[in-house]
Amino acid sequence: MSFHLFTGLLACLVAGTLVIIVAFLGLYAWPAVRLNGFSFLYKNTWSLGFLYRNPITVHGQQVLRGAHYGILFLIVGTLLSTLVALAIAVPVGVGAAMFLAEGLPPSLQTWFSFFVELLAAIPSVVYGLWGYVVVIPFLGHRVFPFLARHFGFIPFFGGAVGSGYGLLTSGLVLSLMIVPLITATLRDALVAQQADLREAAVALGASRFEALRTVLLPATRRVLIGGSILATGRALGETMAVLMISGNAVNYLPGNIYAPISTMASFIVSQLDSALTDPTGMAVRSLAEVALVLCLISIVVNGFARILLYYEGRQSARVA
Amino acid sequence: MTATPAEGEARAGTVRPTGSRRLRRRVFDSLGWSLSLLAFLLLGSATVWILVVVFERGYHALTPTILTHVTEGYGGGLINAIEGTGVLALGSLLLAIPPGLAAGIYLAEFDHGRLAPVIRFLVDVLVGVPSIVIGYFGYVLMVVDFGWGFSVTAGSVALAIILLPYICRSSEMAIRQVPHSLREAAYALGAGDARVTLNIVVPAALPGILTGILLGFAISVGETAPLLYTAGWNNYLWTGHLTNEPIGYLTYAIWAFVTEPFASAHALAYAAALFVTLFVLIIAIFSRLLLDQNARLRRRDQG
Lengths: 320, 303
What we know:
The complex is a heterodimer. Chain A has helices at 3-36, 39-42, 72-102, 106-121, 124-151, 167-192, 195-203, 208-219, 221-237, 240-245, 264-275, 282-319; strands at 46-47, 56-58, 61-63, 68-69. Chain A is mainly α. In chain A, a hairpin with a 2-residue loop joins strand 2 (56-58) and strand 3 (61-63). Chain A is globular, with a radius of gyration of 23 Å. Chain B is mainly α. Chain B has a domain at 80-252: Orthogonal Bundle (MetI-like fold), CATH 1.10.3720. In chain B, 77% of the residues lie in helices and 1% in strands. In chain B, helix 5 (115-128) crosses helix 7 (152-176). Chain B is globular. The chains are: A mainly alpha, B mainly alpha.
């Protein structure tokens, strides 16, 4: 076997892992997919049914009486926490990238950037520990009551503040976890811009900041969008930190920004033990369906971001 | 505000006193720079806050027992978890490096035709698949279907799936940096594909490849979600069984013990967080230094 073929086969194996994961999860979850139908996505009940009564047979599958699987609250919780995280991470990430790329002498750039990139290196569970031990008491006792009192007129900012576990806490911590993706890709793109763009802007009388804002940032717009979508993908699938700080609400739609939530990723961890008590195995298969939905969403989001970034890379290569 | 001062002025066709215009531009400039500085300071202070919390609490939780004893209920030590983290990390690297490196070689050296871009795309998407999805996949396939139970093998394979795309892409990047002249010289001397790649190109790209592997090491030490339902947890040291023997690891101790209402459990969680964070930090700094040195060497070679 030639070397070319050998490495090619192993490369196919690596890439094929993705296909295998999707196929196997789909196969395993199939009885649950058939049972739950489309209402899985828009109903708001996750209930294993009557654990101590005899199961009934649906579509040739044993199911517990009264079992209902609908994950609307998970979809809402996942999307909202990601949205809050993006709303914080994009402006802060862009600002930090501008400072790191243009506001510092080149000799300091690498180590200052490293400081932000460290945020990506800190493990998810350490964020969870930090959030659980320090951030939740701080937000729940000081910041949230203050926000609710003085900014309660903004929709979803008023009302009960709860204990600190919830949507805004998850969004804040998630934003820190995803911001390095935005800052790092944008900073690299800004630094890689041809010097002539900046020089042309400055020659027309623009200050350094005006050149950055009116010429360099628009030129890197697609990188920013691609990086933000990658960050979205990361926020959608984050597990441990969200598990420890979101409150893990079940069958509950948040009424305001402080309310407890649950995301698809954290729900898989928090519910497997309980799902295993279902003797028909349908709960475990329904959790596999949650994993399948999450996997498909992240494939779409990441695929879109990659295509955008490839396209950008090829275009800038052609210009250069 | 829709137009910059300069644009509005040009449209109006009037000339304002230059002093006020210069002032407005200067105010706008310094406002912009301050906001971007503020954004950076926010992120920097968050980094410091997290590290200070972990190091301070972790330092106070350290006792000699932690390094000598296994976990006993909500107290004792963490030697079982430290050992388990090491075993799982090495196991996953052992499983992920050969195919990951081979795939990287393929993507860098044989990037003609239609297959390579498709593979690259799938690998990049695989990076984004949430780790809990891979963990649940591992649980259903290996723990339940294959009957391996919570075990070193199931945990290592789940971790290896996470590492594969990182190692593949970082090896590809490193191999692409090797100058073409090296390959041409080797081919001119009559060497075949395999010899050129393995004897010339890969050794030249080794620092970059090793950096990728180091980062993979850090990832495997810091991951939790893929291990929860594949490796399980064990209060005792590993006895060497590859299947059907759960194994402990540090990140589990962080998650499970910090949520218990006992001071001794908290101490274990803080100590585990200190070990994990310190390890990840050292690897991050070391690999950054390595990359810096590489860039400097390359500049010197070219200059």
